[in-house]
Amino acid sequence: MDDTLRRALTLLTESGKTATLAQLKARVGAQRYPMPVLIQALQQWKVAPQPLHEEVAPEPQARVAGAPSNAELQQQIDDLRQQVAELRDQLAALKPR
């Protein structure tokens, strides 16, 4: 069994959860492993768990392909704030006093 799958199953077990296919799939990503591999790993784990004996650190959340970075999001927020300010100024100029 792949170490990544063992790590995911170990983390699920250590967190007090019963490892299920859905939880394993969510933990490692369905695109990374084909479903038959996930099913086989889960079946092997249920028959004979082989937890990693090393200190297991949670895997960092992978960035979704095509998702903007934090800096890009912050730039978009700044741009939108500027647009809102400009629109407010335009609206104020249109309102009769």
From TrEMBL:
UniProt feature coiled coil, ranges: 70-97
Keywords, sorted A to Z? Coiled coil
Task: Tell me which domain of life the UniProt entry assigns to the organism this sequence originates from.
Answer: Bacteria
Q: What is this protein called?
A: KfrA N-terminal DNA-binding domain-containing protein
